[in-house]
Amino acid sequence: MTSDFFQDPPAACPTPFNFADYVLQHKSELNSKTALCIVNQTRYENWTYGNLSNLIQSIISQFKDAYIGPEDVLLMRLGNTLDFPATYLAALAMGAVPVPTSPMLTEAELSKIISELKPKAIVRDPDLTLPAADIPQIHLSKDIKSGRDLSFHMGDPNRLGYIVYTSGTSGNPMAVAHAHRAIWARRMMLRDWYDIRPTDRMFHAGAFNWTFTMGTGLMDPWSVGATSLIPEPGTDPEDIPFLLKDHGATLFAAAPGVYRKLLKQKVNLSHLSLRHGLCAGEKLSEDIRKAWQDATGTDLHEAFGMSECSTFISGSPSRPSKHGTLGRPQNGRRVAILNDGHPAPVNTPGMIAVHRSDPGLMLGYHSNSAATAQKFQGDWFLTGDLGAMDDAGNITYLGRADDMMNAGGYRVSPLEVEAVLRQFPDIDQVAVTDVTVAKDARVIAAFYTSASTIAPEAVKAFANSHLARYKQPRIYQQVDSLPTNPNGKLSRKLLRQFFEAQHDRTRET
Question: With respect to CATH, is domain 403-508 assigned 3.40.50.720?
């Protein structure tokens, strides 16, 4: 039996189709219902479906005044406000191509993006960085006109809809081109991850301008007529438990690090109205999952995905993930574990791959056919992540292919070593990678944080009794914090660079 999992094919996307039309399909029948509530400890701001539609229509009018039309690329330089998703939907509604960007990008990074995409205009918050460029800028007006019906540019669901950039954790950021149909494909997530209903109040802990928030926190709830709850910019994470209670959140979505912070606060979480929690962005540890279940009495469901295909493996209330696994491919997805270009036998490590027929898969890397071709092997899109699939389709995550370590000829997953060391008393966070200590000599190193001082010898002794010798780190170092990339994910690359620079200075002295 091979690691090639596929159940029922997904329903075909309707044609003609428009991304924004699908997201806002309930705007008329739910005109006065709250679509979005922006919350903090002292106040809240409600936006009904009708108000949201008026905002989007006002932005469309401004785009038309700026001579923006279908297929025009719009670079988004907007902050953590409702303008971000509203601009995104306005551009999609009229057939333009929005390109959301992180507010943390430097001028050099933006210059590269502008050179690659040659946008028709830049929708800009004047407070955000922008390099000098001979491109028209659009500054959104706060004047919202009401009473006009939204119209949508309908067309082929396979046409270019929007472009997002990868985080660049394994190289240079890539411009990922998605079709309008990508939002239709998320129906598989609604069923096999969220179990979201029109009566739900989805609280997402992220910012408006994070793609995880945009999809899970806004687009998907709105597409089923639910209510989104988003913390006001600057909200203290310590306030989140109280906001969840005060605003009757029934679903909560966040990255694992947010769950970790909430659990460390030691506040009472048993009185919340949550049906369950949702987690994505990086691998969820079983410790956090178990602690959340104990604290809230609700389950925490993880999903795995990437910029090129959103999430496609997950657990859900109707089919919780098997202990220690990511879950199973969502119904309608065809996912395999590949070895040498072919599905591997079950329970055999290999690369996680998605079939090219998946409606949520990218069109390709914008204007980079060579890079696109490198990501495909026959009918399969290669994710760059390693895993193993059992005979029921449950997938165990084994880390990024470029994170895998080589120890004396053995390939070792840093996640496996981290899971063991995380059990050591008083360790808060741990990261493992291989580092260069001499020419052609690499060893496994473990870095950990703790509120107390922990002797490296103690951690080493613990590892000696819990890990095979070839999996054991040779270096143990306590640090103040672990480096992350702009999306808040652990960066083993930065950790490796930090250690090797420190090591080089030590050798010089």
Answer: no
Rounded Cα gap, residues 464 and 20, in angstroms: 55
The pLDDT assigned to 230 comes to 97
Omega cis (within 30) before 359: no
Reported as a single tens digit per residue, the pLDDT across 167-189 is 644 446 789 999 999 999 999 99
Burial 307-326 (b: 16+ CB within 10 A, else e): bbbbbbbbbbeebebbeebb
Q: Which residues pair with 385 in a beta bridge?
A: 400
For the entire predicted model, the pTM comes to 0.85
Strands 73-77 and 121-124: parallel
| Dihedral angle, C-alpha 418, 420, 423, 427, nearest 10 ° | -30
Q: Is-contact 348 337, C-beta < 8 A?
A: yes
Is the per-residue pLDDT at 338 higher than 90? yes
4-395 folds as: Rossmann fold (3.40.50)
448: helix, coil or strand? strand
| Nearest residue to 11 (alpha-carbon basis) of 193, 211, 157 | 157
> Which regions of the chain carry the CATH code 3.40.50.12780?
4-395
Separation CA 213–CA 403 (nearest Å) = 26
Where are the domain boundaries for CATH 3.30.300.30 in the chain?
Answer: 403-508
Q: Which two tokens stand for residue 463?
A: 């590892």
